[in-house]
Amino acid sequence: MGQEIDSAEFDEADFSEFRTKLERETELLGRYFRDGMLSQRGGVGGYELEAWLVDGRGDPAGRNVAFLEQLASDKVVAELATFNVELNSDPRPLCGVTLARMQTELAENVASARTVAQSIGADLTMIGILPTVGRAHLNLAHMSPLRRYRALNEQVLRLRNGRPIRLHITGDREELRYEHGDVMLESAATSFQVHYKVAPAEGVRIFNASVVASAPILAVAANSPYLFGRELWEETRVPLFEQSVSVGGSESTRRVTFGLDYVSQSLLECFQANLERFPVLLPMNSDEPAEHFAHLRLHNGTIWRWNRPLIGFDDDGTPHLRVEHRVMPAGPSVADTIANAAFYFGLAHCLATQATPPEKEIPFAVAKDNFYAAARHGLDARVRWTGGRMGSVSDLIEQILLPEARDGLKRLGMDTSDSEHFLGIIGERVRRGTNGARWQREFVARYGNDMRALCLAYRENQSSGLPVHQWSI
User: Fold this and answer.
1) Contact in structure between 137 and 60 (CB atoms under 8 Å)
2) What's the confidence (pLDDT) of residue 251?
């Protein structure tokens, strides 16, 4: 969905032509897998960070057109709403001091973005759901002026036969029921998406490890407890995103999904499922050769698995595979963000290289239950793990998963001091029971349900550069 399209209006011929090209490219991708024509270079990481533009009162500021014009960087692009932007990293080999370089890059990009935002009367905030976002902000008047977003809205509503989006989220304390007439609800959820480039032979293990690791990673990273002033899940962004672009149908055709099963033979299975199970949403036809996989990549971009395989290209034009881990929200700080990435890279690599694949001991249905338990309860979630373990996700992370992540980073060749620093941030969050969601809840418990005060205090702490476990309340 990152690519712009030429038109937002389609007819049946467009859908038919797109489907034909999608079938051809999926078949061609199968041949690339069988014949070893995909890039064999793996072990590269990167990320995308979605962020909010906010005004001096902490409200969403719909100024991304002016912001992007002044920033003039191809690494920062518009998102669905005019108050959202996305910051992209350079890909880096997962070895040496890559984590420190990722932090330096992100800190510099955030600082530049904040300077530009402030020059137009706004600021930048990294958070899963902005506490001050309201129903009045989530309308088509605040949609970024890109054809792909207008087309997305029209096609989602077409598949829903014009029925409004129905949002229903039940938390431990409060419940939210709401109907909305367009896809702008999606813009209330912003993410930190980590990319792990893999060789085809390791794709299955890395993908499945990412699925297994989703619950503990989400639990420690949760940062979205409020929506429209209601206290809901620790990571309310999960049900919000799943419901905001729902087109109905069965579990197998949900566009935002944890999935139906692990992959077994290759990541090709996901692309074949895309063809077989998901109706074409944006039939933007291209004259590019089939080897560019333009239609396959666009179609894949309209299916938002929480762990999603991607096709990209090396500098020499050889297509490669990436696993996109989408479970983490944006924020709370730059240091927290890179710590989350470090935890993911290390844990995924360790789980993917264990003698007994964890997916052999943790059925997919259990990994899925773990994920939604983590989204609901964060660090208080109870999960099932290998060896028949059942218990606190916090204990699991502290006693087993942090050592495994440390081992994974070591075997990737990461600098030991960097690994200790960033995994130490994760460890302190767990030890103190404080992630972004918990900090927000504690602020509200002390000062009351004032979303504007919460947003301003959050932004002030984020500006300090300190990780969330050191924030004041």
Assistant:
1) yes
2) 77
Neighbours of 257 (CB within 10 A): 16
Own/partner long-range contacts of 173-178 (Cβ < 8 Å, ≥24 apart): 173/231, 174/230, 174/231, 174/232, 175/230, 175/232, 176/227, 176/228, 176/230, 176/232, 178/135, 178/228
CA distance readout (Å), 112 to 54, 67, 195, 272, 345? 15, 11, 23, 41, 27
DSSP string, 282-348: ------S-GGG-HHHHHHHTT-EESEEEEEEE-TTS-EEEEEEEEEEES-S-HHHHHHHHHHHHHHH
Residue ranges of domains in the chain, CATH in brackets:
12-43+146-330+337-437 (3.30.590)
> Would you state the pLDDT for residue 248?
75
Q: 465: which 2 tokens?
A: 């550069």
Instruction: Answer yes or no: are the C-beta atoms of 116 and 76 closer than 8 Å.
Output: no
Rounded CA-CA distance 64/124 in Å is 11
The values of phi and psi at residue 46, to 5°, are -165, -175
State the virtual CA torsion across 216, 221, 223, 225 in degrees, nearest 10: 10
**What is the 8-class DSSP label of residue 398?**
I
Peptide bond into 332 cis (omega under 30): yes
Through-space distance between the first and last CA atoms of the chain, rounded to whole angstroms:
38
pLDDT of res. 1:
44
**What's at 453, amino acid-wise?**
A
**C-alpha closest to that of 104 among 338, 410, 332, 424:** 338
- Other Cβ atoms within 10 Å of 180 Cβ, number: 17
Q: Are 298 and 342 in contact (CB under 8 A)?
A: no
* Region of residue 464 (phi > 0: left; psi between -120 and 50: alpha; otherwise: beta): alpha
From the list 127, 231, 183, the residue with the least C-alpha distance to 449 is 231
Amino acid 380 reads D
The parts of the chain modelled with pLDDT lower than 70 are: 1-8
Q: Distances in Å between the alpha carbon of 77 and those of 46, 98, 178, 450?
A: 16, 24, 30, 31
Alpha-carbon distance of 25 to 295, in angstroms, equals 7
Q: Are 21 and 295 in contact (CB under 8 A)?
A: yes
Tokens of 449: 């349900």
According to the model, what pLDDT value does residue 8 have? 63
- pLDDT for the residue 55: 97
